[in-house]
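Researcher: Next sequence.
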Amino acid sequence: MSKSVQGLNGKLVFAISAASLGSAFQHGYSTGVMNNPQTVLEDWMRHVLKERNGETPDKATITLLWSVIISIYCIGGMVGGLITGLVAEKLGRKIGLLFSNIFIVLAAICTATAKPSSSIELIIVSRFLTGINAGLNAGVTPMYLAEISPTNLRGAVGSVYQLVITISILISQILGIRGVFGNEDSWPILLTLILIPCAFQLSTFPFCPESPKHLLISKGQEIEAQRALVWLRCSHDVQDEMEQMKNEAEAMKLVPKVTVTDLIVNGALRQPLIISLMVMLAQQLSGINAVINFSTDIFKTAGLSENASTGATMIIGLVNVIMTLISMILIERAGRKTLLMAGFSGMIVATVFLTISISFAKDSSVASVFCIIFVVLYIITFATGPGSIPWFLVSELFSQSARPTAASLAVFTNWFANFLVGISFLPIKEAAGSNVFILFIILQILFLFFIYKKVPETKNKSIEEISALFRQKSYE
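Model: Next structure:
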């Protein structure tokens, strides 16, 4: 097969960019945008409630409202995750991603009108809508990227989703600084800027083809599938790849449409489902959100001023971006399983030493410095594999007929775990202090053992080869 077929080309890069810069950017921006302007928004809510009720609300009311604003985003993500399979199959990957932008447009209208109308409720609605968008994007985009990629680039291209998330979280944090848009006058602009990636996707993605696999295997449109593949490879030499897809299509004819029940009952599907759900749980329950949440406190304990703490948080965001970029390069060389195991091993070491350092940080400036070092080490090891691999591993483990349903369950699981950490971390932190990380150490060890025993290496394997592996294992 020619080099142009195997490698990147201008049109494939355009399709990857149109798909991920729109959707993953929305996901990451929505995730990070509420961090810096929290105090400003809480003051605004306090003012709105005072005007509405004639008395200043107590701290507990504001805390509860803020918790609702944060958690409703995860609930929206769960809803988006659950409808991923339906949208990806009924509308297709391409139209499904374009459809997802409707929720962003509606959310932007809500945030733009919330301040003039003094409506906290509109902020809550907008966060729910951006959650649905993020949940849909998290399911459909990795699916599209996996289906348009040559086998030898599937891992690297799949990692683009997480890379763009890390970049957009960093950008949202920079834009959320008080001196930029995170102030009393500009926060509606900050929350409405999510329209930019939306406009980018709506103006570029219509020029990209639908997933060739979806066209051939789900719709039976062979000529359109070949045309899409020729466009994506910038070459007419696509016969080998078409044959591979036709073989998968023939195999699919023998298999009825896969339901949730089939995923659970059929041994050849149950094993990859358990792996998919476990790596999603591993990503969220590894403590990543807790470490990021705790990082500002850690930096303040280390004697940094509020501005310096914000700067340190930005540096962590930058480290996350750089390491995700490095993992994209490593992933096709080292493999998925190797990077997952290396990542979790490093996270265990970093979390153990972080827990020890935090316990001495109040009395020792040296321990405070070590806290910062181990937070950075934790982020580096997380970004090496656990940050990006779960998003596209699901698309690699399942054949075309099972992929949408499996993606729905996996994305729902990820958002549910995210929600669980969000609502339970602060109460546990209040009760256990720095010892809260011991819980994450235990979970990390369990996840590492599971990855070692159960997760197969999918590097350079076709989807059919991976499916055959699970079929073989289910009959052993």
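Model: The CA atoms of residues 6 and 150 lie 6 Å apart. The chain has 23 helices and no strands.
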